[in-house]
Amino acid sequence: MALTGRRLEVDRIATLAVLPRESAMVVVGDPGSGRSSVLDAVSNRVSLPVVRVGVNGSESRWPLAGVTSLFTALDDPRATAHIAHLLQTGETAVPVTAGLAAAHDFLDAVHALTLPPTLVLIDDLDRMDVESQELIAFLAGRLAGTALRVVATVRSVPSDGPLAALPALRIEPLPSDEALILARTMAPEEANDGVLAVLAAETGGNPGALREQLAVLSREQLTGAEPIVLPLRPTPTTEALAALALGPAAGRDLDVLAKLALVPVAKTTAWDRDELDDLVGAGLATVRGQSVTVRDPLVRSALYWRMPARDRRAAHAALATASAESDPRAAAWHRSFVDDVPDVVALLSAARSYVVDGNVHAAIALTERALHVGGGTEDELVALLGVAEALLGNRLLGFAARYLAALRPFRTTAHEVRRLRLQYSAQYLSGDAVHADELLVSVDATEPADVDAVAGLMAMVACFRAEAWELDQAKDLLHRVEPLEASASPHTLEITTTARELIAAIDGTLPSDTDLHDGLATSVLLAMSDPALLLLAHALSIAERYRSARRVFALVLARGPQTAPVWTEAARYLTAENEVRSGNFRQALRAIDVWEAGSSVVERLREPSRAIAIAWRHFAEGRSADALAVVDRCLEHRSTSRLWGATAKLHALRGRVLLLDGRLEEAAAALEAADAIGRSLRNPAVLRHLGDLVEAYARLGRIDDARTITARLAADHHARPGRWGALVLARSLALVADDTTRDTARRRALELFQPHDSQFERARTFAALATVGNPAERPRLGAAAAAAYEAAGMRRPLVTPAPAAAMPPFGTGPSLRSAPVLSASMPGTPRSAPDASAVLTSLTAEERAVVQKVTEGYRNREIASSLFMSQRTVELRLTQIYRKVGARSRSHLVALLT
After folding, report:
1. For residues 18 and 5, what is the distance between their CA atoms, to the nearest angstrom?
2. Full DSSP string of 392-450
3. Which of 89, 474, 548, 660 has the fewest CB atoms within 10 Å, counting from its CB?
4. What is the CA angle 468-472-473, rounded to 5?
């Protein structure tokens, strides 16, 4: 199983293996943080010989037992004699001088060993005997001439301990998104995503605690059929971490913290401020504004369950009384443990209020408590629906889906339509297909409000069907809305109108801008709702009106806090997609960064839209392997097999990356899969895979297949003309032209481009034509392609591309299909720069490490941190590199080496 969320830590430790000098590092992590797993990943990553030293805690009473283990692991013939000498010296030395003498003898013994450059990994050094800790710390500070790189893991480093002087790397708790990814890999297939999100949050990003909780919860709790008791009951890792964290606390502070652990979050006004300041100063509590909470959920878990049940109930009763006026939400929580019939609606109302305030942790705790003590009345279910609605509005999809699954159909039309709207939205935003079977039968609604709700629901599902390219079903739903429009509200009519525009854009028939909303007048757009603006902007982007789409997206983002987070995030994502479609990768990368930085969502790579955006970023930055890994992970997820539009986009992106990577057979297979799914879609500018498929077939020598796809592209483009279609069709015609028309077709493909057209497509055309041009023209076309890629904002990795299959001469026999000719690397692709190996051989190992970081986009400060240098040293190394390779600047260096 791949290590989740520790890439930076593994990279930093593995850097020791490539540095030309000996180095040492202490890796500090809490119990359960995954220190051993990080060392496992490092040992599999580095090319140096690795010596792994384990620690037996029972031997910590024996002096020099740890040093003995180290020498034994080094496996040198003279190690046994050195061990005996050290032990004898330790027995006979005068106590005053024993430590220093042993240290020097130990250092001399290590110098005397004949070792190649070796990485020594010591797990749990702080569990060794004290003498061995001191000797190994002494050695770690004097490694010159030993050929050793030493990395040791510990739980903590006392400021007065022997390890305090060594460089330290702290293993922090996993962020919530990575903890959720880890939970998915550990949990059974049927586990509920919302439950896993709760566990990821309640275990504080600690992998060991998460693993233990997954093991102790029942199947019903993991699937969401039963509520989770919060705080979670402590496990061995929880107790170990709590003991470490609570060691300095005692007396009054510990009593206050134990009471604070009884509530997920409390207002500071109900507590003594001096006592809270003491807890905050000790790192045990966190104060944000007027709220205070126990900092670590695992510490809270340990404290909560240490208190006897009778004492807990009495404390809840006292705190409920004390907070009744100052903190009614906390009082509702406390009363649920005291009252014979808890007020579940009050609990859920408080939970919704917490979601609105952005305190999701407290909201989930109160909601789980409500499920635990509730009776399932209609009022309780309506209140639970409100919590799910607030969670979805903040785009917390896993949590929203978890509580929507706990609801049953309502008797009233208004509540049932509201439930279905939330359920369908959660399915769509999570990347699942929206079947909406409930809408297959007619809905009886007589009240105007009910009619409006049903019409709005059908218009919303029509948009989802349109996004899945099920245009006939989308049109049918909007046709069913028409008789209801007389009773529909202005908002519903607005959504219905923009839904029709989205369908028209996907179908390639969107009217011109002058015919849309008074010529896209600003006054009209400002009066529209956020979802209507997003639908309109998305339609404009699909119709290749990128500037207009950019303007409408900006209107949504400019509204600021008054826009619900779900719409803000949608605007950010669709803005990034608009820039990708326009071919402006530089702006697209910025938009993706803004989107991710502003997102508080814990779901990263399971939704196809997220996977596509992140994979595009990897691809644009020259990390093809990372892009393919993201796409493949998403394709493996079961939901994408039902969401055909998203699945086709993933296959198309995968094919494009493989094509530009020179893996032609795999590219053709991926593009054929996209084509099979999107065959019914007649607008070629939506999926944009046909041009790539033509190029793949042409470069594989499958000319007849390439011409067949080109004919389809031509027919679709003539039926639904667009700028992208014209550019790609011209390129495709040049690739499949025969000897008599090839020159004309190539000139046409190049002359068609205008300054405002996509630089990415321009680069693709130059690169593709280089494959069919004569050898004398290839360098010129390759250079033009490289310049266009640079203008589009694509970054190229420091790798030499694999050879690409050249297209055979036209008119040759079909036997060439099964035996494509291999030629030199295709010029002009993002990986098609001259071979950098000759330049790299002139650099030292340390300089090559700096160059690699530069090509990956690191700044000097980041390079210094990752390679354990000063920023000044990085600047000096870059100056030396520039001189050796003849580079004028950082960008020129990247260009030379790619």
Report:
1. 22
2. HHTT-HHHHHHHHTT----SSHHHHHHHHHHHHHHHHHTT-----GGGGS-----SHHH
3. 89
4. 70
Only one residue has tokens 């100052």, namely 326
Cβ atoms 400, 602 nearer than 8 A: no
Secondary structure of residue 350 in the 3-state scheme: helix
Mean pLDDT, the chain, as a whole number?
84
Q: Residue 168's beta-bridge partner residues?
A: 26
Q: Please name the residues in contact with 753: beta carbons below 8 A apart, sequence gap of 6 or more.
A: 727, 761, 762, 765
CA angle 450, 459, 443 (to 5 degrees): 40
Q: Which amino acid is at 605?
A: L
Model confidence pLDDT, tens digit, residues 402-436:
999 899 999 888 999 999 999 999 888 877 788 88
Contact 647, 436 (CB under 8 A): no
In 3D, which of 149, 156, 161 has the Cα closest to residue 171? Answer: 156
Q: Which pTM does this prediction carry?
A: 0.77
Question: What band does 297 get if pLDDT is binned at 50, 70 and 90?
Answer: very high
Yes or no: say if 530 and 564 are a contact pair by the CB < 8 Å rule. Answer: yes
Are 359 and 530 spatial neighbours (Cβ–Cβ below 8 Å)? Answer: no
What tens digit of pLDDT does each residue of 749-807 get? 999 999 889 989 999 999 998 887 778 888 888 888 888 888 888 865 433 333 343 33
Q: Could you tell me which of 536, 516, 394 has the C-alpha nearest to residue 463?
A: 536
- What are the backbone angles phi and psi of residue 51, rounded to the nearest 5°? -115, 120
Residues 590, 793 contacting (CB under 8 angstroms): no
Q: Which two tokens stand for residue 654?
A: 């995968």
β-bridge pairing 118-122 and 148-154: parallel
Residue 316: count other Cβ atoms within 10 Å of its Cβ. Answer: 19
- The whole-angstrom separation of Cα 209 and Cα 202 is 9
Say whether 825 sits in a helix, a strand or coil: coil
Residue with tokens 């979601």: 355
DSSP letter for 235, please: -
Sign of dihedral through CA atoms 477, 479, 481, 484? negative
- Maximum mean pLDDT: which of 125-129, 188-192, 704-708: 704-708
Please tell me the distance from the alpha carbon of residue 654 to that of residue 646, in angstroms, as a whole number.
12
Mean pLDDT of 709-738: 95
Predicted local distance difference test score (pLDDT) of residue 608: 76
Return the SS3 of 120.
Answer: strand
Spatial strand order of the sheet with 118-122 comes to 50-53, 118-122, 148-154, 24-29, 168-171
Structure tokens given for 548: 């207009």
CA–CA dist 119, 140 (Å, integer): 12
The strand order across the sheet containing 266-267 reads: 266-267, 291-294, 285-288
Q: What angle do CA 842, 844, 847 make, to 5 degrees?
A: 105
Token output for 403: 């509580």
Question: 618: how many CB neighbours lie within 10 A of its CB?
Answer: 18
Strand partners of residue 266: 292
- Specify burial of residue 223 (Cβ count, 10 A radius: 0-12, 13-18, 19+): middle
d(CA 698, CA 852) in angstroms, rounded, equals 34
CB 224 within 8 A of CB 364: no
Q: How far apart are CA 204 and CA 210, in angstroms?
A: 9
Residue 492 φ/ψ, nearest 5 degrees: -65, -40
Nearest CA among 186, 194, 189 for reference residue 636: 189
